[in-house]
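seq:
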Amino acid sequence: MAELTNPAAHPDPSPDAVPDPMPDPMPDPVPDPMPDPAPCSVPDVSVVVVGEGEDASAVRRTLDSIAGQTLGAVEAVPPPASPGRPAGTYVMFVEAGRVLEPFACLTLFAAAEREKAQLVSACAAAPSRKCRSGLHERTAVHRGAAERPAAEAAAACTPAVRLYRREFLTSIDAWPVDAASAARAYEAAGILVELPHRVLRPAPASRRRRPLRRLRKAAGGPRLKRAVYRRVLTRLPVRKGSIVFESRGGRYAGSPRALYEHLRATGHRGRMTWVHAGGGEEFPGGVRLVRRSSWAYYRALARAEFWIDDDRFPAHLAKRPQTTYVHLLAAPPLEFTGLDEPGTKLGSRAARRRLRRSVDRYDHIVVGSDYDAAVVRRALRPRAELLPLGRPRNDGLVRGGDPARLERLRAELGLGRPGTTVLYAPAAEPAPGLDLDLLARRLGPDFTLLARCPSGGAAVDASAVRDETSLLLLADVLVTDHAPAMFDFALLDRPMVFHLPGVAERLRRSGSYFDLVDEAPGPRTLDADALVEAIRGHVTSREVYREARQEFARRHGQYEKGEAAAAIAERFFGRAGR
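struct:
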């Protein structure tokens, strides 16, 4: 889900805050989002202690730390362990002698459940050290091999601790207790989550340091860059009209992309820079790029007059007073986020302080509805001004898109034949037990199934298409789960089918701002047979759910008028730019 940004800080409520127009959907006290299972149930996490032959005291230290986990349903598996021994839904491997932090299992388990991940990785380094690979600097979700860091970078990521879904390990026949099998599991994982949290106390390190390593660390280490940013770069003059854009962890996407293209088309004269995570192949020619965490990145942020994102800039970067931070809310929040998120509530005070500091940097938050504004005030409690201008990325949906661009995409996907185009756009991977090739063949020749996830056979794989707006415009019917695509597609007033196996349980664990199962503006299905029937009956359901669909669009797209980019440009840059 394109989710509401969960930065690392928020301030206390402002006395001038606008009253919350939406009643609090979660009465106090809040029920435990992840209650302890009954003693006879399957453990949520099995922690396998690796290190046969280690002395008993080292094994005991690790077992004691497992027993002290705040997640109740944790199974400890002492050495030696076989692949069939752990019974938990997830499996974690810990070397004998290492000590888990009390919240380790809960933190990794919550991330895995939230993203339906096969693998969750967190750094085990001490707070004063950084992961040598450069990973784990922030929370990141990688879907598919193309988005994740290189395997070499992951191999260099030590110390680290990883949580695996047990059925995933069974499917690839891997037992990652050594470097080779761990690398195999890393490459095979469909959804990978990186967390910045310290979940494992490192073994005592030698005090001896090699001079070359010390020199490298001093020359390009993040601590030096941050110090130079604070003490030197932020004293340089601000470039008038300059903007730094970032979207979805370094992609060319979303509302920042739509606003950038509007400013470029209308002749904005300021320097515009994009942040990328590596490679930058998806960015068009002529775009000024800086790699995240590079020297050029810190310099661009220090001298920019505007920061614009739909994700978040790192919490440790203080914004100078001359810089205006405009946050474009990515999508209407469904699952609990910010202060409402279970992981934040159960986390440390230090994490909540970082959240306050990060949100306090926002000067303006652009929202698409009163619903958005109410959730932002509740979940983040910002001091920033909330601007009801709509999302620039939805301007194309409201106006109908670019006909030439739509025809090019139609030709690329091979959509020449007449019939109904069905877009399957889940939040992550396909629903359990759903075979997209079989679904496409069962629908028959009158339907074309586009899949917004890796697929093959009779289904058309559209996972590599970056232009999400054009994909939605090509679709006659949307099939989704709890993905943010439902909010955008509702603006087109076209039929939607909600395939929701496992979604009710997920939302029960994570918490949600409304009951999707009851309020979804379209047929709800739980199995493939019902899904085929619902898609074939889209003409009937279009009329049956018309009123509910239009009310859903009004509630979540209240300010979507097709002029969001122009309104933001006018507000901050004037008609002709600067």
